Amino acid sequence: MASTEITQHAAVPIDHVAEGIEGLRIAFVNVFGVRHTDHHWTLIDAGVPYSASLIRNWAEKHFSAPPIAIVLTHGHFDHVSAAGELADHWNVPIYAHQLEAPYLTGEKEYPPPNTGAGGGLMSLLSPMYPRGPVDLSARLRLFESEEESRVLPNWQIIHTPGHTPGHISFFRGSDRTLLVGDAFCTTKPESFFDAAVAQPPELHGPPAYFTSNWTDAILSIRRLSLLQPRILAPGHGKPLAGAEVEQKFQSFASNFNPDHS
Ligand SMILES: [Zn+2]
Ligand SMILES: [Zn+2]
């Protein structure tokens, strides 16, 4: 599978990814807080099961108020599990793309994982992952266009299907920061559990065992490359920044062509 290694020094600390962006790594997945003003911020994604109190403690330490909303890149269990509990606690809405709605309202389950894909522990364990149905309908609001939203001012909402039908990414033009959820990773899926190991970050496609449409996934990565991002904040792997990252992402995107048919 196409991948691109990047030197270790391109990794940036998760608690200061870019201006106003702080992340938290929980087990093998990242959540991010995006600050708009001193008292306004938005939580991007909501972690694995049983992470609600971790996210709450982190939020109380780093932000002076509850977020104005929780925004989900997509509905997989490792990105949404604390969303309902946190939204109830903070009394805030949960936003997602309209095509992701059936998986967030209890209507539909994701297709079964492709356990042969990608290798590693995450793939082997994937039949055990909850696939839904998750029901967040009481708080769910839908993004219906790619326009900016009140809950993410100055960010472009970009539909990046492939990993899931309603997957979205977020781009801030002022410093070319890209929050990508699972559109791609900056680590091999085999390495999800040992990011502490000093191995170079690596641009890698979306987690394979759960990616349902590879044609769309490839197009989404190409589309993101047209934005010429310079700071990459993924759901899995370390956040990366700098000129080398910008250039490596371009070649990764133009060569990415996995065989998962
Ligand atoms: Zn996912
Ligand atoms: Zn994920």
Outline the secondary-structure elements.
Blueprint: E1 4-5, E2 21-26, E3 29-37, E4 40-44, H1 52-62, E5 69-71, H2 77-80, H3 83-90, E6 94-97, H4 101-104, H5 120-125, E7 140-143, E8 156-159, E9 168-172, E10 177-181, E11 202-203, H6 214-226, E12 231-234, E13 240-241, H7 243-255
Parallel strand pairs: 4-5, 5-6, 6-7, 10-12
Antiparallel strand pairs: 1-11, 2-3, 3-4, 8-9, 9-10, 12-13
Helix pairs in contact: 6-7
The structure holds zinc ion (2 copies).
Order of strands in the sheet with most strands: 2-3-4-5-6-7
| Overall pLDDT | 90
Termini separation: 13 Å
Shape by Cα distribution: globular
Structural class per helix/strand content?
A: alpha/beta
Can you identify the CATH superfamily?
Answer: Ribonuclease Z/Hydroxyacylglutathione hydrolase-like
Q: How much β-strand is present in the residues?
A: 15-25%
Helix count equals 7
Radius of gyration, whole Å: 17 Å
Overall tally of structural domains: 1
What helical percentage do the residues reach? Answer: 10-25%
Given as residue ranges, the uncertain stretches (5+ residues, pLDDT < 50) are none
Tally of extended strands? Answer: 13
CATH topology name, in short, is: Metallo-beta-lactamase, Chain A
CATH first level: which class? Alpha Beta
Order of helices and strands: EEEEHEHHEHHEEEEEHEEH
Quick structural overview:
The chain has 7 helices and 13 strands. It has helices at 52-62, 77-80, 83-90, 101-104, 120-125, 214-226, 243-255; strands at 4-5, 21-26, 29-37, 40-44, 69-71, 94-97, 140-143, 156-159, 168-172, 177-181, 202-203, 231-234, 240-241. β9 (168-172) and β10 form a beta hairpin.
